[in-house]
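Lab manual, section 2.4: Encoding a predicted structure.

Procedure: take the sequence of the chain (337 residues), apply the prediction step described in section 2.3, and record the output as C-alpha cells. A sample record is shown.
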Amino acid sequence: MNQRKKSWYFTYGLIAILIVIVFVVSFRRPPDYVVKDEISLGTHVRVVVSSKYSGKILDSIFREFRRIDSKFNPYNPNSKIYRINHSNGNWVEVDDEILFILKKSLYYADLTGGAFDFTLGRLIKLWGFDSENSEKRIPSSDEINETLKHIGYDKVEIDGNKVRLHDGVWLDFGAIVKGYAIDRAVQIAKKIDPKATGFVDAGGDIGIIGPKFGGADWIVGIRNPRGESQQDTIGVIYLKEGAVATSGDYERFFISNGKRYYHIFNPKTGYPAKGVISATVVANSCLDADALATAIFNLGIEYSLTYIPRYGGQAFIVDENQKIHKTKGFLYFEQVH
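Recorded output:
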C-alpha cells in the first residue's frame, strides 16, 4: 500500500512539474524589440525587430541596404546603373537582380501606360533632384523639350541578360528600388529567424516582418502632406503582414514664387505631376506598393480608384485640395482584425 502511494505521489509530482514547464514555456517573454536607424537610399531607415538573433538580422539588413544603394544609384559613377546609363547605346550584360528590377519596371510602365516611368534620369538631374547637394531650379521650356527626347520606357531594349538604351535614355529606379530593398530586408529577417517580428521603415514605406507580440496589428500612421511635422497624420491603418508605401509632394521639393515643385514628374510634360499631393498604397510587397503609389500621380484619381485594386493594391489618395479619396478595399486596413 505504501509502495502504491509512493508511486501515485511520484506520478502526481511529475504531472505537476510538467504543467509548470508548459506554463513557463507558453508564457515566456519573447525577446525585446531592438531598434536601429541609418541613412540609406537617400532616406531615413529604421528597423524594429524582436528575435533571439536580432543583432544578426539588423546587421544583415543594413548591409543589404548599403549594397542596393551602391548598386542602383544612377548618379554614382561607381554604380552599375550609372555604367548602363553611359554605355552610349551599346549592349550591356546585367546580372539577375538588375534584370529583375528592369522587367518589374517595364511591367509597371506598360501596365500603367507610362504613368510609372523609370527612364526619367535626365529629367530628374535637369531639375536638380539627383542629389541633395544639386541646385534645384525650374528649367527653361527648351531644356525640358530637349530632355523629353531622351525619355521613354519604349527606348529600353532587353535581350536575354543584356540591356541596351536608345536615344540617350537614363534609368532611375528611385520609384521602385526602395520598395525592393524593404522586401529584401523582410526576406532576410525571416530567413534568419522565421519567428522574428517587427517592421522595416524606409522614409515612411514599411514592410512587416511579423505581427506584434501575440499576433497584434502594427499601427501605421498616414502622414498629413500639409502637416507641420512627420508626426501629423490624416489616417491610420493596421497591418500584420504585407507592406505600405506613400509618395508625396512633400518629400523632395522646392518653392519658387510661392509654387511647389517636386520630384514626381509627368513624363509627357516634363513638369511635376498635378492633381495629387499624396498617395498611399497597401499591397503584398513593398516594391508593388512603391511603384503603384508613384503611378497614381499621373494616372489620376478616378482611374486609380478603379484600377489600383485590379493591379493588386488598395489606395488612400489626397488631392491638391486636400480632399481624401479611398478605394473600397482600403477600409479593411482601417480596422483592427
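Check your result against the sample. The first strand starts at residue 34 and ends at 40.
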